[in-house]
Amino acid sequence: MDSIELLRRIDDAIAARNLLQHPFYRDWQAGMLSRERLQLYAAQYYWHVEAFPVHLKVLADRANGTLREIVLEILPRKKIRPLPTRNCGVISRLRWA
After folding, report:
1. DSSP conformation letters of 40-81
2. Fewer CB under 10 Å: which end of the chain, C or N?
3. CA distance 71 to 45
4. 28-51: pLDDT as tens digits
5. pLDDT of residue 1
6. Alpha carbon of 86 to those of 26, 65, 90: distances in Å?
7. Which domain holds residue 6?
8. Looking at the domain assignment, is residue 2 inside a domain?
9. Is residue 26 part of a domain?
């Protein structure tokens, strides 16, 4: 397989998993999501954002070479905080808004 074919296959694989083509995001872009669905999304997404720096740290610890350098370059821009054990105020407010 030549490099052009490889790039085409990579592009096809990425396009097949394009998050913005997921029905949820398409409904969001079209303004068709209810307040309840957006509140649930926000509550779930909060945990993803909170955990992301921790995942980067684990990746940096396991990686080597160029990947490790890239992750270590990104990591200082992310704040690593211990994950709260209870709902934070933001989630509580979203839940009852």
Report:
1. HHHHHHHHHHHHHHHHHHHHHHH--HHHHHHHHHHGGGS---
2. N
3. 22
4. 999 999 999 999 999 999 888 888
5. 82
6. 32, 38, 11
7. 1-33
8. yes
9. yes
